[in-house]
Amino acid sequence: MEGYKYHVMLDITSKLMFCWNVNYSNKTVSIRVTCQLPPNYWFGVGFSDYGEVTDADFVVFWNDPVATHHLQDSYTDSHGVLHADHSRDYTLHKARTEDGLSILEYTRPFDTCDERDYLLDNGTTHIVYFVSKGTPASCVGKDVRDLHHGFQRVQLLKPDVHLPPLPADVWTFEITAPKVKIPGSETTYWWFITTLPILHHKHHIVRYEGVIQKENEDIVHHIEVFHCVGRKHVHPYSGPKVPEGKMDPASDLASCRNVIGAWAMGAEPIIYPEEAGSPIGGEGFSPFILLEVHYHNPHLRTGHVDSSGIRFYVSPTLRQYDMGIMELGLEYTDKMAIPPEQSRFLLSGYCIAECTQTAFPRDGINIFASQLHTHLTGKRVWTKHVRNGRELPEVNRDNHYSPHFQEVRVLRHVANILPGDALITECEDSTLSRSNVTYGGFSIREEMCVNYIHYYPKVDLEVCKSSISDNALQNFFYFMNRIEDIPISPDKGIKHNYGLIPWLPEHVSILNYAYQTSPISMQCNQSNGQRFPGTWEGVPLTKIEEPLLPEDRKCGI
């Protein structure tokens, strides 16, 4: 690993290690692969869209019977069969075997302009591999599906940004679950009211990270820590989450919506820029905290006890700005549904110009990190930035998103969002394996489309999300009833009506058109859970009159 900034173990059995550096000046990645295997083994390492070994881009290494090294730029077809890629688009620096350790070092561009090669980007990258016994005369024609194979998820193109060291006066505390007996159900949201350390003077959180109990790593899906703004007292609570829409607005818990920490599967520690920190403590600051843990327990296991949570790093030395976390995207509601058996279905959640105009300061806010979030059907997620009808560079994008790898990612370029700008978070979902409608909601089998942005300076806007307006959805149901003769009734409820629709391609197109053109209902919500003053029901969608042009790949030049 010496000389390489990043590394990941691909396969423990064969000690297959992948190390890399990123060079943005010449847009290349330098890679070192090591594998500890006997001489009569061969292996391949590469990339694919979602971790499949079909339609994948591989570099294959083997020794022939006379111990000659062979290296082949390869790819697999849709059946997993290896082919030689005759456009060799990497630069080999080293290929040798030392004391049973095979070592490869090579460099490749982000974009090779070869349709057989994987296009590297700053979203999730699935590194695929295979290992097999034998000394083949050639790798061509081998079916990788028959070999020992697997994958790991990373953000390969890490941003080249300066992350400051921890201050000398930093100290830590943890907010963790109180030995929760995880229920034997697939989805549980557990709420726990606790308190922060008593701080008589204002401090800044400068870093936080997940503290996940090892035996529950495959069950703890994500965690959020909410500050109960302005509360002098909050009644104790430890139990399942109160369903949205059923909570008393006057409840103590209704005020606990100010996010100060968020973790999800795969997330690394989040380190704040040296000019910003998350404020806690001081005169009049409520010490009450709500911890929310989402347990995903598909095998319905019982007997697990959990004390997972988040560790916070705190300094009394204040930074220039307070930072905050804001939630963008779609409201968690069954109004936003995805038809079954769809290869890709687009959902869009809006933070409209009227909301940012109301809530943002004159110089706007600066987004420095982003955590994209969906449940199981999410495939691609991104957030657009629109100013006066003109689309600016995107805030964040993940073209190969995985719900099992949801990092808080520091952005390579800070995004300045001015009052009057709009932010549109979009998700492409795949429901090919589902025969019934997928609804928006909290369950892992339901869907979300969210971007948790980390920004400074902190404002009072906590949630900026949307859903199709109630009237627009009823108009859709009315159309399906009158034109398509489907027995839909406004008295039967949203899920009942969606469930009656036979999802023929024309019906899917009509719903998609309704989502992409209809007025919306906005959540332009303050940290106390209340909406900002304004008209937020039935507002028009943000129009993009000047779309962002695709990046010039400079192929064929």
UniProtKB/TrEMBL annotation:
One of its GO terms (cellular component) is secretory granule membrane. Its cofactor is Cu(2+). It is a single-pass membrane protein. GO terms for biological process: dopamine catabolic process; norepinephrine biosynthetic process; octopamine biosynthetic process. GO terms for molecular function: copper ion binding; dopamine beta-monooxygenase activity. Residues 14-132 form the DOMON domain. Keywords: Copper, Disulfide bond, Glycoprotein, Membrane, Metal-binding, Monooxygenase, Oxidoreductase, Transmembrane, Transmembrane helix. It is found in: Membrane. The keyword Oxidoreductase applies. It comes from the Eukaryota. InterPro entries: Cu2_ascorb_mOase-like_C (IPR014784), Cu2_ascorb_mOase_N (IPR000323), Cu2_ascorb_mOase_N_sf (IPR036939), Cu2_monoox_C (IPR024548), DBH-like (IPR000945), DOH_DOMON (IPR045266), DOMON_domain (IPR005018), PHM/PNGase_F_dom_sf (IPR008977). Belongs to the copper type II ascorbate-dependent monooxygenase family. This is DOMON domain-containing protein. It comes from Patella caerulea (Rayed Mediterranean limpet).
